[in-house]
Amino acid sequence: MKADYLVLANLSKTFASGHAEITAVDGITINVRQGELVTLLGPSGCGKTTTLRMIAGFELPTSGDILIDGESIIATPPNKRPTTMVFQNYALFPHMSVAENIGYGLKIHKKSPGTIRERTEEIMRLVGLSGLEKRSPAQLSGGQQQRVSLARSLIMEPKVLLFDEPLSNLDAKLRVSTRLEIRKLQHRLQITTVYVTHDQEEAMTLSDRVVIMNEGRIQQVGTPQVIYARPDNRFVADFIGKANFLEGRITGKMEADRIEVDILGQKIKAPRPERSFARGDRVLILARPEAIELGPKTTASLTGTVQETVYLGSEMIYEVKLGSSILTVELTNPQEQRGFDKGEEVSVRLKERSLHLLPYEEN
After folding, report:
1. Spatial contact of 282 and 249, defined as CB atoms under 8 Å apart
2. Which DSSP string corresponds to 279-335?
3. Reduced to 3 states, what is the DSSP secondary structure of residue 349?
4. How many CB atoms lie within 10 A of CB 10?
5. What is the pTM of this model?
6. How far apart are CA 195 and CA 41, in angstroms?
7. Distance separating alpha carbons of residues 254 and 277, to the nearest angstrom
């Protein structure tokens, strides 16, 4: 296990707003291991970008500390910090060539022309820009401009690389290919990275770990698999992916790895969560759309009514009314399965191993 390399220790940021104060970041602590890519994810205004700007030195914390490789950087100005940032809008100099943009930081640090040329050529090969040295930014595609921005950051050999929603200006197809390139490059270089995005799929694809934030506070930190399958609360479950919530009650029958729950009179056995529940406790059962199966109506199963159907070729999406809940159900390869019509009553089977229990919360 690699040691913590970037540490945010009880970090807070408060902004003045008239006669009031707004707390953008509220006492968060994050430990990033060397070579790890950690994504800050959350809705607009959750504090993720403010956190990134504090690491970069563009915002000063109200309280707390930031350490890189064991040393506090709170008092270090932005241009002296061992960090570089890849911006959302690329921030390229329009009057400079690609090579001049990439080597600009080394020029400012008074490196020799030979060193600048050698390092620039090396970085351009690394990010797939060879042959474009003399072009201007205006002659590049959006994806190429983003690579120039990335190369300009990498050439400085930072201890920590920061990304501020770098793919938001690209079209959907280019976003997918570019994020895969970023991930491969980060793996190859093993550079410690903090990545800010509001795109859930981007976070799940790129990250070693994800930090879910809301209203300036951390809701959960974990691998993409843990965040998706075992969220800590309703907010995280609802924010990541698609979520169905059913109300249930613990019956009291517990096994080593399973716990029995009553849902609308039907008994199911869900994986036993880490938190403890007592007999009679109300709980929320998280059932992802792919964790539900539909079939012809039977008396031995939960019965729902199809409200809507959407055909997407590779999958069929159903909205099914079950009790007072509307469930979203995704069935793959619909050509191999029986379809159901709007208004039809169907059996609803929950794939028990894929369920997750949460403390009951009102919607």
Report:
1. yes
2. TT-EEEEEE-GGGEEEEE--TTSEEEEEEEEEE-SSEEEEEEEETTEEEEEEEE-GG
3. strand
4. 12
5. 0.90
6. 9
7. 10
3-state secondary structure of 352: helix
Structure tokens at 73: 């950087």
Q: Contact 302/355 with Cβ under 8 angstroms?
A: no
Look-up: residue for tokens 């001049």? 100
Query: Tell me, what amino acid is at 179?
Result: R
CA distances in angstroms from 335 to 43, 160, 203, 311, 338, listed in the order given: 37, 48, 32, 11, 8
Sheet holding 258-263, edge to edge: 266-271, 258-263, 244-254, 282-287, 356-359
List pLDDT tens digits, range 149-195.
999 999 998 999 999 988 887 888 888 888 888 898 898 889 999 99
Report strand pairing: 20-33 vs 160-164: unpaired
Q: What angle do CA 263, 265, 266 make, to 5 degrees?
A: 65
